[in-house]
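User: I'm writing a short methods note and want a consistent example. For MarR family transcriptional regulator, I'll paste the sequence; you return only the C-alpha cells, no commentary, since I'll be parsing the reply automatically.
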Amino acid sequence: MKEEERNQLDEKLSLKLFVVLTRALDSVRKSIEKEIRSYGLNPTEFAVLELLYNRGEQTVQKIGEKVLIASSSITYVVDKLEKKKLILRTPNPEDRRITQVSITEEGKAMMDDIFPGHVKAVQRILEGLDTWEKEEMITQLKKLGIQAKNR
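Assistant:
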C-alpha cells in the first residue's frame, strides 16, 4: 500500500473512530444518567457525592477539577447538596478563602445504600465487553486522551 493510500485510509478510520466513540459514549452516558436520576440526583450531584464518599473531604476548587465543571457551576451544585443535607461546607481555619466540603452522615448513608447498585448498573451497562477487552480499552483510551490533551 502506498503512503498516500495509507494516509487516506487513516483519515477515513480516524473519522469513523470519532463517530463510533462519540455514539458509544453518548449511549453509555445516557444509560448511566438514567440510572443516577432514579436516585433523585442529577449526574453532577452524584459525581460530587461519589467523590466525597470515596475520597473524603475536598476543597470546592478540587471538586471542580475532579468533576470537570466550572467553579460557578460547582458552587450551585454544592449549594443544592448542602440544602439536601448531604454535604457540609466549612471554612478552612488557616485560610478562610478556602472552603472544605465533606459528606454528611445522611449523605454517607444515602451513598452506602445506592453506591453498590450503581456499581452493578455500570457493570451491566458495560457487560458487552469482557474483562480483557475492558482492560485493553482503558489502556487505549488513556493513550488517546493523553495524545489529544498534548495537541
